[in-house]
């Protein structure tokens, strides 16, 4: 073999070895991934607090690595885990309160989210979970830990180049406003939506003040299609089990107002070099529910138990569980399956690109 042929062969081997690594992530300016929000984003922070809203037991985590119930409210990975892989920073986003996390794990990102929380300060009190204001306190604490390791300048740069995702709001309507009379006495649905959006803006302002610059804010899902909402509010809850559109219409109104708010904030803070974007999950989830795409067989009940009401401790080791969760949109009566989270993460990729490449 000639020297030229040998060099070509070596180059081919090199590129073949490199290709899988490149495919796992993207070449972006993202330094880390930082997550705030509720059970759609909590990988196990509630394991470390006193609350009934936990999922660190089977059958949760049935399809996760080594079948471990981590505290994620699904059978496997969350959308944020898939997003972390997409931007190339890590395979799974860990819970910030996990005491075993190394500094290297902290540096590439964590989730501060807590299942059961919301933008309304009353919502986390109902469930005895971590409020969004407390999550911001943990974020400050997190920065202190990073600064002690790499110095203030590098820490500031890490926060500036991190992808920040905020996912909350459903509990405010489904758990708080709908279930307890406190807010309903003082707010119409429209007024309560505006009340929540004021808290969204305050939260985002605090993130900006703490140095975050690449921020994605997740909208509400079609809440009327959550199996538990169908069971409690649909006219045909036990026959056809159609979505309760009143709740989905609340989500559509909220999402429309949220998009306008984020566009306004983006314009106002563009001089900071910030990118604040709306992350749509309503459309992708509704497409999956109504279109029966991706080989989905069940869209109006969860995989765990009857799929009508079960969630958290009601979905437990004694519950019946469907054989193949990938055939279901929802894992329990509230939370999507890993497959659904994957499909949502795929749909969000263009938005993520717009944030990270800004």
Helical residue percent band? 40-55%
- In what order do the strands lie side by side in the largest sheet? 2-1-3-4-5
Distance between the termini: 48 Å
CATH topology: Rossmann fold
Oligomer: single chain
Question: Could you characterize the architecture of this molecule?
Answer:
The chain starts with a helix and ends with a helix. The radius of gyration is 21 Å and the shape is globular. The strands form 2 sheets. A 5-stranded parallel sheet has the order 2-1-3-4-5, with helices on both faces. A two-stranded parallel sheet has the order 6-7. The protein has 13 helices and 7 strands. By secondary structure, it is an alpha/beta fold.
Write the layout of secondary structure elements.
Layout: H1 3-24, E1 33-37, H2 79-87, H3 103-107, E2 109-111, H4 122-127, H5 132-150, H6 152-160, E3 163-167, H7 170-177, H8 181-186, H9 189-209, E4 214-218, H10 227-233, H11 245-268, E5 275-279, H12 282-291, E6 298-302, E7 328-330, H13 338-356
Parallel strand pairs: 1-2, 1-3, 3-4, 4-5, 6-7
Helix pairs in contact: 2-13, 5-6, 9-11
Short description:
By secondary structure, this protein is α/β, with parallel strands linked by helices. It has a single domain, classed as 3-Layer(aba) Sandwich (Rossmann fold), CATH 3.40.50.1110.
Essential attributes:
alpha/beta; Rossmann fold; five-stranded parallel β-sheet; two-stranded parallel ribbon; 13 helices; 358 residues
